[in-house]
Amino acid sequence: MRVVLAEDNVLLREGLVRLLAEAGLSVLSGVEDATALLADVGRHRPDVAIVDIRLPPTRTDEGLRAAREIRRRHPGTGVLVLSQYVRVSYTVELLDGGADGVGYLLKDRVTDIAEFTEAVRRVGGGGSAFDPIVINQLVQRHAGDDDPLHTLSDREREVLALMAEGRTNQAIADRLDIAERTVEKHCTSIFTKLGLTASPDDHRRVLAVLRYLNA
Amino acid sequence: MLATGFLAMGVVAWRKHPYSRVGPLAGLIGVLALVEPLIAGPGRVLAACWVTVLIHLVAALPSGRLRTPAMRVVVGLAYLNTVALATPLLPADLGKEFGTLVEVLLGAAVLGVQWTRWRRTSVPSRRSLTPVLAAAAVMAGLLLAANPMWTPDASLLDMSALKVGLVAVPLAYLATELRSRIERGGVADLVVQLGGDPEPASLQAALAKALHDPTLTVGHWMAQARRYVDADGHPVTAEGTGRVATRVDRGGEPVALLVHDPALLEQPRLIEAACTAAALALHNARLTADLQVRVVQLAESRRHVVQAAEAERRRLERDLHDGVQQRLLSIPMTLSVAETALASDAGRARALIAEAKDMSLAVLDELRALSQGIHPTILTERGLEGAVRELTLVAPVPVRLVVDLPGRLSAEIETTAYYVVAEALANVTKHADAGSAEIRIERAGDRLVVEVVDDGCGGADPDGSGLRGLATRAADNGGLLHVESPAGHGTRVRAELPCG
C-alpha cells in the first residue's frame, strides 16, 4: 500500500515514516506543509494520504482543508487525518463527501502499531477509521431516556460503536471474541431498532450509523 | 401722579407678565384716573369707576385671576354698584352716598379676603402679595377716613391725601417686581455655590434658599428606575400634595424634579434661572458620579485580572509539578528496570515496556487537558464560529446556531464569547432540563452580542459560581452579562462585549 505523509514536526514525521515502513507500507514521501502534500498526492496518486490537521503556515486547520481538497480532487486516494484533539465538527466536515476512504484519529493511536496500520490499510482500501473518542461523544448525545439508543443491549451498543469506527464484521468479531455470524445478527437487530435500512456494504453502513448518531 | 403711577405699573406688569390681567387692569385705572378730572357733570361718576377697577385689581393679585367664586361675586357687585351709581335711580346725593358706602364695604371685603389668604398662604406667595396688600390697606384706611358720609366737611386736601395714598399701590407693586429681579441675581450666587458642592442635600437647601421656598423638594432622576427620588432614595412626586412640580431637563434628558409652592409659577424667570443652575450642577454631579463608578469598576477589574493571572500561574505550576513531571519521571525509571530485566526475563521486560508506553500516553492525555484548559484549541484552529459549532455538536440537546459575523474578532473577545456559550450550554445540559436551545452570535454596532436561550425550567441563579465567573470575565473585557431565568420559562444568558 502506497502512502504520502504530511506532518510538520520532523521527529514525529520521521517516526511515522519508520513505523509505517516497518509495518510493510510503502511511504512515497513525507512533507511538512499542505502545499507540498497536495503536489505530492497529485504526482504519486497514493492509496492513502496521512495528514496532520495543524500544518504551516498558520498551524490552525490547513491539514483539514488539504484533506477535503484531496477527497475532492482525487477520489481514489483515501485520507487519514491525525490530530492532537478530535472534534465532532471535523468529523462531520470529513463525512461531507461520504464515508469512503476517510479516517480521523487521535495522534496517540499511532503508538498501537497494529491497530494504526490496520486503520491505514482500511482507509487506503476505501473503508473508514473514526476515533472511538468521536464515536463516544456522538453516542453521549443520545443520553435522553426516550432515545431509541436505549433500546439497544450493551453488546449491541459495543457493536454499534465498532461499526461506527469503520470496522468490518470480521474485525468486530475478532475484537469482541465472538462469531462473525453473531455480529451479523447484532447488526440486523441494531438497524431494526434504530429504524435504519440495513446495507450489506460496510462503507455505506458507517455513513448511515454516523449520520444517525449525529442527527 | 396717581395716573402716572398706575400707568407705570400697567406697563411693567404687561411687559413682564403679558398674559396676566394685572397689566391691563392697572393701565385702565391709570387711564380712568387721567380722564376723570377732564369730564364734568354726571360723567364724573362714571369716571370714578376706577375705584371699582382698583378693587378688581387688588382682588386679582398677584396672578391677575379671580381665584374664588366669592371674589368673583364681590368684584361683580362692585361693577354693578358702579353701574347703579351712573344710573341715577335714587336721588343723586343719597344715591352717591349709598353707592360710595357699598363701594367701601366691597373694598373692605376684598381686603379681608386677601388678608385671610395672605395669612394662610406660603412664604413665596406672601412675598408677592405683601407690599400691594399693605398699600391697599393704607388706601382703604384713608378712604374710610375721607368718606363724606362720616366727614361731610371733607376737604379737597383730604382727597389729595387719599390719592397720594393710592399711589402706594403701584409703587408697592413696582418694588415687588424690582425685588424679584434682584432675586434672580441671587440665582447667580446659586450657580457659584452649586459649582463647588454638588451634594444632593446642599443642592436642595441652596435651591430652597434661592427660591425662598423652605418646603422645596428636589427629586433626582434615576434613569434605570425611571423615576425621581430624593437624597434618601424615596420617590418624589407632586401628585396629591397641592404643590407644583417643575421638570429640570438637560439635553432632552430628565435630570431632576423641583416640587415647590405654586406661587413660584408667578416668577417663571426665577424658576427658569434656578432650573438652569440646578441642571448644570446635577449634570456635573452625575458625570462625576459616573466617572467615580467607572474608576471603581476599572480598579476592581484590574485587580481581578492580576489576581486571576496569578491564580492561573499557580494552578499551572501545580498541575505540571504534581502531574506531568512525576509521570514523565516514572517512564525512564520503568524503562531502566525493563533494561535490567531484558537479559534475565524477556517476558517481564516486555510487560514493563508496555507499562512505560501506557504511562507516556497518560502524560499526553494530561498535557492535552492542561493545554485545553489554558486555551480552547479549537478557537485557534477554527475561530469563534467553528468552536461554538463544535460545542453544539456535542451538546445532548438540539441546538440551533445563528452566527452573523463579518470575520475574526480579537482573540480575547472570541475567548470570552466562547466561554459564555460553553458555560451556558453546560448549564443547559446540567440543570435546565431543556428540550432545545438556541445560540445567537452577532455584531450590533461596536458590540458583539452573544445569546444562549433554552426552553428549560429556568430559575438559574445569576450569583452561582459559573454565571458569576462569566459576569466577571465579561466585565474584565469591558462587557456585560445579563441573565433572565424566570422559573418555568427557560433561561436567557446574554453577553455584550466590545468589539469595535
What does this structure look like?
The complex is a heterodimer of chains A (215) and B (500). Chain A has helices at 10-22, 34-44, 62-73, 88-94, 113-124, 132-140, 154-165, 169-176, 180-194, 202-214; strands at residues 2-6, 26-31, 48-52, 78-83, 102-106, 128-130. Chain A is an alpha/beta fold and 215 residues long. The model of chain A has no long low-confidence stretch (mean pLDDT 91). The radius of gyration of chain B is 43 Å and the shape is rod-shaped. In chain B, α4 packs antiparallel against α5 (69-86), α4 runs parallel beside α6 and α13 (411-432) runs antiparallel to α14 (465-476). Chain B is 65% helix and 12% strand. Chain B contains 14 helices and nine strands. The model of chain B is unreliable at 150-157 (pLDDT under 50). By secondary structure, chain B is an alpha+beta fold. Chain A binds chain B through residues 53-54, 60-61, 84-85, 87-89, 92, 108, 111, 137, 140-144, 214, and chain B through 357, 360-361, 364-365, 368, 372, 377-378, 380-382, 386, 389-390, 393-396.
